[in-house]
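REQUEST FORM: STRUCTURE PREDICTION
Request ID: SP-0412
Submitted by: Lab K.M.
Chain count: 1
Length (residues): 147
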Amino acid sequence: MSYQLEHKYYHESEITEEVKEAILSRIEIVEPHIVYAKDLPIASPFTIKLMYDKFFEIAETYNKCGLIIDLSESKMPSAETRRMAQNESKKIHDHDIIHMSFVTGKNVFFNTALKFMFNQSNPISFSIHTSYNQALSRVREVVFSSE
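STATUS: Completed
RESULT:
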C-alpha cells in the first residue's frame, strides 16, 4: 500500500523516507524526453527543491527534455516557495530542459504569477495551459521540433 500524502505544507524536518517517496511518485516519464509532475496541493520550498532535483536527474538521461508541471489542484504558494521555484527553474538550461509547460486549469492567479515569474528574470521557453493534453502537445512540439 502506498503512502497517502496529507493536504498540508511539508517542512523538511518532518519528511520521512515514506513521505519523500510519495512526493517523488508524483513525477513520471510520460514518454522519452517528456516528464510530467503533479504538484502538491500545498507546496513548500523543500518539496519544490525535492521535485526539481528529480526533474534534473531524469533530464540527465536525455540530451534534451520537456517538462509538464500540473498545478491544477495546487494552492497559490507562499512567497518563500515561489522564490525557491524561481531559483530552481533558473537551472533548467544546465540540465537540458528546453521547455516547461504548466497546467493551471483556469486559475487566473497562477497564470499571472507564472508569466510574471518567468518573464521577469528567467528567459526560458514556457507555456501555460488549461489542460494536460494542451501542455503535452506543446512540449512535444518544442522538444521534437528542435531536433
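NOTES: The chain has five helices and five strands.
Reviewed by: T.R.
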